Amino acid sequence: KPAMSTTEEGVSADILESEMAAAKAASSAEETAGAASLEDEATKELEAIPVQGSNRECTFILRNEDHTLGNALRCTLMRNPRVSFAGCSVPHPLTKEIHLRIVTVSDDVAPADCLAEGLRDLYASAESLLHQFDSAYDEFVASNESAAGDGADVKINIKQEFMGSFN
Protein backbone atom coordinates (compact mmCIF):
# COMPACT_ATOMS: atom_id res chain seq x y z
CA LYS A 1 0.00 0.00 0.00
CA PRO A 2 1.25 3.48 -0.77
CA ALA A 3 1.76 5.73 2.19
CA MET A 4 -1.17 8.10 2.73
CA SER A 5 -0.62 11.69 3.69
CA THR A 6 -3.00 13.33 6.13
CA THR A 7 -4.17 16.90 6.60
CA GLU A 8 -4.29 18.78 9.87
CA GLU A 9 -7.79 17.48 10.55
CA GLY A 10 -6.58 13.93 10.17
CA VAL A 11 -8.45 13.31 6.88
CA SER A 12 -6.57 11.61 4.13
CA ALA A 13 -5.53 14.02 1.34
CA ASP A 14 -5.97 11.23 -1.19
CA ILE A 15 -9.60 10.78 -0.14
CA LEU A 16 -10.21 14.55 -0.38
CA GLU A 17 -8.71 14.66 -3.85
CA SER A 18 -10.81 11.71 -5.02
CA GLU A 19 -13.97 13.28 -3.56
CA MET A 20 -13.17 16.60 -5.25
CA ALA A 21 -12.58 14.83 -8.57
CA ALA A 22 -15.89 12.98 -8.20
CA ALA A 23 -17.69 16.25 -7.39
CA LYS A 24 -16.17 17.92 -10.45
CA ALA A 25 -17.20 14.99 -12.63
CA ALA A 26 -20.75 15.11 -11.25
CA SER A 27 -20.91 18.87 -11.79
CA SER A 28 -19.65 18.45 -15.33
CA ALA A 29 -22.24 15.74 -15.96
CA GLU A 30 -25.02 18.03 -14.63
CA GLU A 31 -23.84 20.88 -16.88
CA THR A 32 -23.77 18.53 -19.86
CA ALA A 33 -27.27 17.27 -19.04
CA GLY A 34 -28.47 20.86 -18.61
CA ALA A 35 -26.97 21.86 -21.95
CA ALA A 36 -28.57 18.83 -23.60
CA SER A 37 -31.99 19.73 -22.20
CA LEU A 38 -31.56 23.30 -23.46
CA GLU A 39 -30.67 21.93 -26.89
CA ASP A 40 -33.75 19.68 -26.77
CA GLU A 41 -35.90 22.72 -25.98
CA ALA A 42 -34.30 24.72 -28.79
CA THR A 43 -34.92 21.96 -31.32
CA LYS A 44 -38.66 21.94 -30.62
CA GLU A 45 -39.77 24.20 -33.45
CA LEU A 46 -43.46 24.06 -32.55
CA GLU A 47 -45.06 23.54 -29.18
CA ALA A 48 -48.78 23.48 -28.46
CA ILE A 49 -50.14 24.59 -25.09
CA PRO A 50 -53.88 23.84 -24.95
CA VAL A 51 -56.11 25.87 -22.65
CA GLN A 52 -57.46 23.64 -19.89
CA GLY A 53 -61.15 22.89 -20.17
CA SER A 54 -61.46 24.02 -23.79
CA ASN A 55 -61.00 22.14 -27.03
CA ARG A 56 -61.24 25.28 -29.12
CA GLU A 57 -58.39 27.36 -27.63
CA CYS A 58 -54.65 26.74 -27.94
CA THR A 59 -51.44 28.74 -27.80
CA PHE A 60 -48.71 27.65 -30.18
CA ILE A 61 -45.08 28.56 -29.61
CA LEU A 62 -43.14 28.81 -32.85
CA ARG A 63 -39.40 28.88 -32.22
CA ASN A 64 -36.83 30.45 -34.54
CA GLU A 65 -39.51 32.77 -35.95
CA ASP A 66 -40.35 36.42 -35.40
CA HIS A 67 -43.26 38.82 -35.78
CA THR A 68 -42.89 38.87 -39.58
CA LEU A 69 -44.30 35.35 -39.90
CA GLY A 70 -46.51 35.77 -36.85
CA ASN A 71 -48.40 38.81 -38.12
CA ALA A 72 -48.82 37.39 -41.63
CA LEU A 73 -50.08 34.10 -40.19
CA ARG A 74 -52.44 35.90 -37.80
CA CYS A 75 -53.98 37.85 -40.70
CA THR A 76 -54.32 34.66 -42.75
CA LEU A 77 -55.97 32.87 -39.82
CA MET A 78 -58.47 35.69 -39.27
CA ARG A 79 -59.73 35.20 -42.84
CA ASN A 80 -60.70 31.63 -41.95
CA PRO A 81 -64.40 31.50 -40.99
CA ARG A 82 -63.66 28.63 -38.57
CA VAL A 83 -61.37 30.89 -36.47
CA SER A 84 -62.99 33.36 -34.08
CA PHE A 85 -59.71 34.82 -32.75
CA ALA A 86 -56.05 34.72 -33.68
CA GLY A 87 -53.41 36.75 -31.87
CA CYS A 88 -49.65 36.90 -32.07
CA SER A 89 -47.13 38.11 -29.53
CA VAL A 90 -43.38 38.16 -29.14
CA PRO A 91 -42.65 37.47 -25.45
CA HIS A 92 -39.26 39.21 -25.53
CA PRO A 93 -37.40 40.99 -28.34
CA LEU A 94 -34.24 38.98 -27.71
CA THR A 95 -36.06 35.65 -27.76
CA LYS A 96 -36.53 34.26 -31.23
CA GLU A 97 -40.01 32.85 -30.78
CA ILE A 98 -43.61 33.88 -31.23
CA HIS A 99 -46.73 32.90 -29.35
CA LEU A 100 -49.76 32.39 -31.56
CA ARG A 101 -53.14 32.08 -29.84
CA ILE A 102 -55.96 30.51 -31.84
CA VAL A 103 -59.60 30.27 -30.76
CA THR A 104 -61.96 28.38 -33.06
CA VAL A 105 -65.72 28.87 -33.46
CA SER A 106 -66.68 25.47 -32.01
CA ASP A 107 -65.31 22.47 -30.16
CA ASP A 108 -65.55 20.46 -33.40
CA VAL A 109 -62.79 22.54 -35.01
CA ALA A 110 -59.26 21.85 -33.74
CA PRO A 111 -56.92 24.86 -33.45
CA ALA A 112 -54.05 22.71 -34.80
CA ASP A 113 -56.03 22.01 -37.98
CA CYS A 114 -56.66 25.75 -38.42
CA LEU A 115 -52.95 26.44 -37.91
CA ALA A 116 -52.00 23.87 -40.56
CA GLU A 117 -54.58 25.31 -42.95
CA GLY A 118 -53.34 28.84 -42.25
CA LEU A 119 -49.73 27.84 -42.97
CA ARG A 120 -50.79 26.23 -46.26
CA ASP A 121 -52.78 29.35 -47.24
CA LEU A 122 -49.86 31.63 -46.36
CA TYR A 123 -47.48 29.47 -48.37
CA ALA A 124 -49.86 29.56 -51.35
CA SER A 125 -50.03 33.37 -51.06
CA ALA A 126 -46.24 33.59 -51.01
CA GLU A 127 -45.97 31.35 -54.08
CA SER A 128 -48.57 33.48 -55.88
CA LEU A 129 -46.62 36.63 -55.00
CA LEU A 130 -43.43 35.04 -56.27
CA HIS A 131 -45.15 34.03 -59.53
CA GLN A 132 -46.42 37.59 -59.98
CA PHE A 133 -42.93 38.91 -59.30
CA ASP A 134 -41.41 36.53 -61.86
CA SER A 135 -43.98 37.52 -64.49
CA ALA A 136 -43.51 41.24 -63.91
CA TYR A 137 -39.73 40.88 -63.94
CA ASP A 138 -39.73 38.86 -67.16
CA GLU A 139 -41.98 41.50 -68.71
CA PHE A 140 -39.59 44.22 -67.55
CA VAL A 141 -36.56 42.42 -68.97
CA ALA A 142 -38.31 41.85 -72.28
CA SER A 143 -39.12 45.55 -72.60
CA ASN A 144 -35.63 46.64 -71.48
CA GLU A 145 -33.09 44.27 -72.99
CA SER A 146 -30.18 46.27 -71.55
CA ALA A 147 -31.28 45.49 -67.95
CA ALA A 148 -31.19 41.71 -68.49
CA GLY A 149 -27.49 41.22 -67.65
CA ASP A 150 -27.39 42.71 -64.15
CA GLY A 151 -30.99 42.07 -63.18
CA ALA A 152 -30.99 38.33 -63.83
CA ASP A 153 -28.55 37.73 -60.97
CA VAL A 154 -30.62 39.89 -58.64
CA LYS A 155 -33.81 37.98 -59.53
CA ILE A 156 -32.18 34.62 -58.83
CA ASN A 157 -30.82 35.81 -55.47
CA ILE A 158 -34.18 37.24 -54.40
CA LYS A 159 -36.01 34.08 -55.43
CA GLN A 160 -33.56 31.79 -53.61
CA GLU A 161 -33.67 33.92 -50.47
CA PHE A 162 -37.45 34.19 -50.49
CA MET A 163 -38.25 30.54 -51.13
CA GLY A 164 -35.40 29.36 -48.90
CA SER A 165 -37.24 30.77 -45.90
CA PHE A 166 -40.06 28.26 -46.49
CA ASN A 167 -37.82 25.18 -46.48
From TrEMBL:
Keyword ATP-binding carried by entry: no
Keyword Thylakoid: no
Source species, domain of life: Eukaryota
Residue ranges of every copy of the DNA-directed RNA polymerase RBP11-like dimerisation domain listed in the record: 57-130
Alphabetical UniProt keywords: DNA-directed RNA polymerase, Transcription
InterPro entries (UniProt xref): RBP11-like (IPR036603), RBP11-like_dimer (IPR009025), RNAP_AC19 (IPR033898), Rpo11-like (IPR022905)
Gene Ontology biological process terms in this record: transcription by RNA polymerase III; transcription elongation by RNA polymerase I
Pfam family, one: RNA_pol_L_2
A Gene Ontology term for the protein's cellular component: RNA polymerase III complex
Sequence intervals crossing the membrane: none
GO molecular function: DNA-directed RNA polymerase activity; protein dimerization activity
CDD domains reported for this sequence: RNAP_I_III_AC19
Similarity field: Belongs to the archaeal Rpo11/eukaryotic RPB11/RPC19 RNA polymerase subunit family.
HAMAP family, per database record: RNApol_arch_Rpo11
Stated name of the protein: DNA-directed RNA polymerase RBP11-like dimerisation domain-containing protein
Organism: Macrostomum lignano
